[in-house]
């Protein structure tokens, strides 16, 4: 009986070792690298070891496989033979089973050991390793590193052999897949669904990805809409216009917008005028920040941060001023429109299902709003606003009443501001009518 108990203990111990190896394998493979690095930065040496194993997956997996193979060999050596003989002796006492006692006992022992190995040595440990990956990887990585050192000749041979097979299959030079933007979006969406993230946080992440694909030209306030000051202006007469504009900074020019000499911060000018007699406009001007319209929007945000500027003047390839961008424009592109006293929305839904949209509404947001997978090539490459879409689609300057149809949308110009499209009525049609 003592021999049977010893064999049972050995088999259970081997199953437990197999489970530990399987759990470690799953934990190290599935652990988030960022989480392990964070643990390592706090002095967790186990996390450092786990990161080292994750950086060499071939060596790590070879070590795990050696351990599992050794467990399998030992399990085969014991194999429950003593248990089977003891069970067969018991079955001999049952008349209708006596004839088959040896076969039945062997089958029963094999089935039970296999079941326990699958459940306790594979499935359950792997699920635990998956659910608590970082913690378990940090705890088991150092023993696994020790096993790798003990078995390094075998690990080396197995690693070289597996790499050779990969090369034969044409997979030898493959680099690990990088995390894609779509995968990050999916993770953020799952986090929102699970309640880990707030919907506004998901929206901000989405807007940041969108901003990374946009240039300064997509955020610009066009030249005709700029409120500017001539250095020779009488500011006393300009106060009503400047205050009603609700801006705090204004380009200062010498003659026209093609000769900007600086930026006036209205609050600073008023403070200086209160403290000093006869302060001039030129004395309080700040240097103007000029950027190309092709600059990435995120690069502009970095320029704002490093230069402490809050406004950038946007120029085209010929050096002409096309508009300006403020830090508020960039922030609004991330968090959405900030409220102001005007309260005007760029897109207003109407009761009949149509939309009244400002001509300066960003084209990429318009495309997402109406689920347009593509735009006409010449329009997508040349224009940044809905007004530009109308102009590009018509091939001429628009006029009030002009109609443009694209996919399932009918767009009507309902108001012009000079030569600029001011308002567009967009009427979606059922998709089957396309």
What features would you describe in this structure?
It is a single chain. By secondary structure, this protein is an alpha+beta fold. It folds into 4 domains: 2-168, no CATH class; 182-211, no CATH class; 216-335, CBS-domain (Roll); 347-433, 2-Layer Sandwich (Uridine Diphospho-n-acetylenolpyruvylglucosamine Reductase, domain 3). The protein contains 18 helices and 12 strands. It has a 5-stranded antiparallel sheet, covered by helices on one side. It is elongated.
In short, what is this structure?
The protein is α+β, with helices and mostly antiparallel strands and about 425 residues long. The protein has helices spanning about 1-30, 35-40, 45-55, 55-80, 80-90, 95-100, 100-130, 135-150, 150-170, 180-195, 200-210, 235-245, 265-275, 295-305, 325-335, 365-370, 375-380, 385-395, and strands at about 220, 230, 250-255, 255-265, 290, 310-315, 320-325, 345-350, 355-360, 405, 410-415, 420-430.
Q: What is the topology?
A:
Layout: H1 2-30, H2 33-41, H3 45-55, H4 57-78, H5 81-91, H6 95-98, H7 101-131, H8 133-150, H9 152-168, H10 181-193, H11 199-212, E1 221-222, E2 229-230, H12 235-244, E3 249-254, E4 256-265, H13 266-275, E5 289-292, H14 297-307, E6 311-315, E7 321-326, H15 327-335, E8 347-349, E9 355-358, H16 363-369, H17 377-382, H18 386-394, E10 403-406, E11 409-417, E12 420-428
Parallel strand pairs: 2-3, 5-6
Antiparallel strand pairs: 1-7, 3-4, 6-7, 8-9, 9-12, 10-11, 11-12
